[in-house]
Amino acid sequence: MRTPIVVLLLSACASACSGAKGLERRQGPAYQDEVASWRAALDQAAADGMILVVRGYHAGDDFIAVMSNAEYSHAMVLDLGRGEVIEAVGEGVIVTPLAKVLSESHQIMLIRPADFTVDAGRAALARARTTVGAGYDYTGIVGAPSRDRYYCSELAAWSWNVPVDRWGPGAVIHPEQLTALGEVLFTSGPRDGKPDAVGRAAAP
User: Fold this and answer.
1) Among 57, 50, 46, 41, which residue's Cα sits nearest to residue 103?
2) Backbone conformation region of residue 193, classed left if phi is above 0, alpha if psi is from -120 to 50, else beta
3) Which of 17, 31, 135, 197 has CB atoms 3.0–4.6 Å from 66's, for a disulfide?
4) What pTM was computed for the model?
5) What is the mean pLDDT of the segment spanning 48-77?
6) What are phi and psi of 78, to 5 degrees?
Protein backbone atom coordinates (compact mmCIF):
# COMPACT_ATOMS: atom_id res chain seq x y z
CA MET A 1 0.00 0.00 0.00
CA ARG A 2 1.32 3.42 -0.88
CA THR A 3 1.86 5.82 2.00
CA PRO A 4 -0.77 8.57 1.81
CA ILE A 5 0.62 11.97 0.90
CA VAL A 6 -0.89 13.46 4.05
CA VAL A 7 1.14 11.01 6.17
CA LEU A 8 4.34 12.06 4.45
CA LEU A 9 3.51 15.69 5.09
CA LEU A 10 2.75 15.00 8.72
CA SER A 11 5.98 13.07 9.14
CA ALA A 12 7.98 15.89 7.60
CA CYS A 13 6.27 18.41 9.81
CA ALA A 14 6.89 16.27 12.87
CA SER A 15 10.59 16.15 12.07
CA ALA A 16 10.71 19.88 11.54
CA CYS A 17 8.70 20.69 14.65
CA SER A 18 10.27 18.20 17.02
CA GLY A 19 11.31 20.06 20.14
CA ALA A 20 9.89 23.33 18.81
CA LYS A 21 7.87 23.77 21.97
CA GLY A 22 11.13 23.99 23.89
CA LEU A 23 10.25 21.30 26.42
CA GLU A 24 13.23 20.48 28.58
CA ARG A 25 13.74 16.73 29.06
CA ARG A 26 13.83 16.36 32.83
CA GLN A 27 14.93 12.79 33.32
CA GLY A 28 17.42 10.86 35.41
CA PRO A 29 18.06 10.14 39.10
CA ALA A 30 17.01 13.64 40.20
CA TYR A 31 13.42 12.80 39.21
CA GLN A 32 13.12 9.24 40.53
CA ASP A 33 11.26 10.23 43.70
CA GLU A 34 8.85 12.39 41.72
CA VAL A 35 8.07 9.60 39.26
CA ALA A 36 7.64 7.20 42.18
CA SER A 37 5.08 9.59 43.67
CA TRP A 38 3.11 9.46 40.41
CA ARG A 39 3.00 5.68 40.59
CA ALA A 40 1.90 5.88 44.24
CA ALA A 41 -0.91 8.24 43.23
CA LEU A 42 -2.05 5.84 40.53
CA ASP A 43 -1.91 2.90 42.91
CA GLN A 44 -4.19 4.83 45.24
CA ALA A 45 -6.64 6.39 42.79
CA ALA A 46 -6.59 4.36 39.56
CA ALA A 47 -8.17 1.11 38.42
CA ASP A 48 -8.06 -1.07 35.32
CA GLY A 49 -9.60 0.58 32.29
CA MET A 50 -9.17 4.17 33.39
CA ILE A 51 -7.54 6.58 30.94
CA LEU A 52 -4.04 7.93 31.43
CA VAL A 53 -3.15 11.12 29.53
CA VAL A 54 0.44 12.36 29.44
CA ARG A 55 2.82 14.88 27.98
CA GLY A 56 5.56 12.60 26.76
CA TYR A 57 9.15 13.18 25.72
CA HIS A 58 9.03 11.50 22.30
CA ALA A 59 9.17 13.31 18.96
CA GLY A 60 5.54 12.38 18.32
CA ASP A 61 4.56 14.06 21.58
CA ASP A 62 6.39 17.20 20.51
CA PHE A 63 4.54 17.15 17.21
CA ILE A 64 1.09 16.83 18.81
CA ALA A 65 1.86 19.48 21.43
CA VAL A 66 3.24 21.92 18.87
CA MET A 67 0.51 21.46 16.29
CA SER A 68 -2.33 21.70 18.83
CA ASN A 69 -0.69 24.13 21.29
CA ALA A 70 -1.63 21.64 24.00
CA GLU A 71 -0.37 20.77 27.46
CA TYR A 72 -0.85 17.02 26.92
CA SER A 73 0.07 14.89 23.93
CA HIS A 74 -0.81 11.21 24.38
CA ALA A 75 -3.47 8.93 25.87
CA MET A 76 -3.65 5.26 26.80
CA VAL A 77 -5.79 2.69 28.61
CA LEU A 78 -4.48 1.65 32.01
CA ASP A 79 -3.94 -1.94 33.14
CA LEU A 80 -2.98 -1.22 36.71
CA GLY A 81 -3.11 -4.84 37.79
CA ARG A 82 -0.39 -5.84 35.32
CA GLY A 83 1.50 -2.56 35.52
CA GLU A 84 0.91 -1.90 31.81
CA VAL A 85 -0.87 0.38 29.38
CA ILE A 86 -2.47 -0.28 26.01
CA GLU A 87 -1.45 2.50 23.64
CA ALA A 88 -1.44 3.39 19.97
CA VAL A 89 1.92 4.67 18.76
CA GLY A 90 3.54 5.05 15.35
CA GLU A 91 4.09 1.33 14.86
CA GLY A 92 0.56 0.46 15.95
CA VAL A 93 -1.26 -0.64 19.11
CA ILE A 94 1.13 -2.08 21.68
CA VAL A 95 1.40 -3.02 25.34
CA THR A 96 3.93 -0.93 27.30
CA PRO A 97 5.10 -1.19 30.91
CA LEU A 98 3.57 1.56 33.02
CA ALA A 99 6.97 2.25 34.59
CA LYS A 100 8.37 3.06 31.13
CA VAL A 101 5.50 5.43 30.37
CA LEU A 102 5.97 7.31 33.64
CA SER A 103 9.74 7.56 33.20
CA GLU A 104 9.26 9.10 29.74
CA SER A 105 6.49 11.56 30.68
CA HIS A 106 6.76 15.21 31.64
CA GLN A 107 3.38 15.18 33.39
CA ILE A 108 0.39 12.88 33.73
CA MET A 109 -3.37 13.07 34.22
CA LEU A 110 -5.73 10.27 35.32
CA ILE A 111 -9.32 10.22 34.03
CA ARG A 112 -12.14 8.09 35.41
CA PRO A 113 -14.90 7.77 32.77
CA ALA A 114 -18.34 8.83 33.96
CA ASP A 115 -19.82 5.34 33.65
CA PHE A 116 -16.94 3.73 35.51
CA THR A 117 -17.45 0.66 37.65
CA VAL A 118 -14.87 -2.05 38.32
CA ASP A 119 -16.63 -4.33 35.83
CA ALA A 120 -16.97 -1.58 33.22
CA GLY A 121 -13.28 -0.75 33.60
CA ARG A 122 -12.28 -4.35 33.10
CA ALA A 123 -14.51 -4.55 30.03
CA ALA A 124 -12.94 -1.39 28.58
CA LEU A 125 -9.48 -2.79 29.19
CA ALA A 126 -10.40 -6.10 27.58
CA ARG A 127 -11.79 -4.24 24.58
CA ALA A 128 -8.59 -2.22 24.26
CA ARG A 129 -6.50 -5.40 24.40
CA THR A 130 -8.34 -6.83 21.39
CA THR A 131 -6.71 -4.10 19.28
CA VAL A 132 -3.10 -4.98 20.16
CA GLY A 133 -1.27 -5.48 16.88
CA ALA A 134 -3.58 -3.19 14.90
CA GLY A 135 -2.01 -0.41 12.87
CA TYR A 136 -1.81 3.28 13.69
CA ASP A 137 -4.63 5.42 12.28
CA TYR A 138 -2.58 8.07 10.51
CA THR A 139 -5.49 9.29 8.42
CA GLY A 140 -7.69 9.42 11.52
CA ILE A 141 -5.62 12.24 13.01
CA VAL A 142 -6.70 14.43 10.10
CA GLY A 143 -10.36 13.42 10.19
CA ALA A 144 -10.49 10.34 7.96
CA PRO A 145 -10.64 7.46 10.46
CA SER A 146 -10.05 3.81 9.69
CA ARG A 147 -12.30 1.12 11.18
CA ASP A 148 -9.42 -1.20 12.06
CA ARG A 149 -6.64 1.23 12.98
CA TYR A 150 -6.34 3.58 15.94
CA TYR A 151 -4.57 6.72 17.10
CA CYS A 152 -4.02 7.11 20.83
CA SER A 153 -7.04 9.06 22.04
CA GLU A 154 -9.26 7.34 19.47
CA LEU A 155 -8.34 4.00 21.06
CA ALA A 156 -8.99 5.28 24.60
CA ALA A 157 -12.41 6.65 23.62
CA TRP A 158 -13.32 3.55 21.59
CA SER A 159 -12.54 1.30 24.55
CA TRP A 160 -15.35 3.12 26.40
CA ASN A 161 -17.78 2.70 23.50
CA VAL A 162 -17.51 6.28 22.31
CA PRO A 163 -18.30 6.50 18.55
CA VAL A 164 -15.04 7.32 16.78
CA ASP A 165 -15.81 6.67 13.10
CA ARG A 166 -16.80 10.26 12.46
CA TRP A 167 -15.32 12.14 9.52
CA GLY A 168 -13.95 15.64 9.37
CA PRO A 169 -11.21 17.57 11.21
CA GLY A 170 -13.71 18.61 13.88
CA ALA A 171 -14.28 14.97 14.81
CA VAL A 172 -10.64 14.27 15.66
CA ILE A 173 -10.30 13.46 19.38
CA HIS A 174 -7.37 15.23 21.04
CA PRO A 175 -5.97 13.64 24.22
CA GLU A 176 -7.04 16.66 26.27
CA GLN A 177 -10.64 16.27 25.08
CA LEU A 178 -10.86 12.97 26.92
CA THR A 179 -11.51 14.93 30.12
CA ALA A 180 -15.06 15.32 28.78
CA LEU A 181 -15.59 11.58 29.30
CA GLY A 182 -15.48 11.78 33.07
CA GLU A 183 -13.65 13.05 36.13
CA VAL A 184 -9.97 13.95 36.44
CA LEU A 185 -8.75 12.19 39.58
CA PHE A 186 -5.09 13.22 39.56
CA THR A 187 -2.72 15.59 37.80
CA SER A 188 0.98 15.57 38.49
CA GLY A 189 1.88 18.99 37.14
CA PRO A 190 5.09 19.38 35.10
CA ARG A 191 8.22 17.65 36.35
CA ASP A 192 10.09 19.78 38.84
CA GLY A 193 12.01 17.20 40.86
CA LYS A 194 9.63 17.39 43.80
CA PRO A 195 7.34 14.43 44.63
CA ASP A 196 3.66 15.15 44.17
CA ALA A 197 1.36 14.47 47.09
CA VAL A 198 -0.60 11.27 46.73
CA GLY A 199 -4.22 12.14 46.14
CA ARG A 200 -3.45 15.51 44.61
CA ALA A 201 -6.63 16.65 42.88
CA ALA A 202 -6.82 18.30 39.50
CA ALA A 203 -7.29 22.04 39.43
CA PRO A 204 -10.93 22.98 38.79
Assistant:
1) 57
2) left
3) 17
4) 0.85
5) 88
6) -90, 130
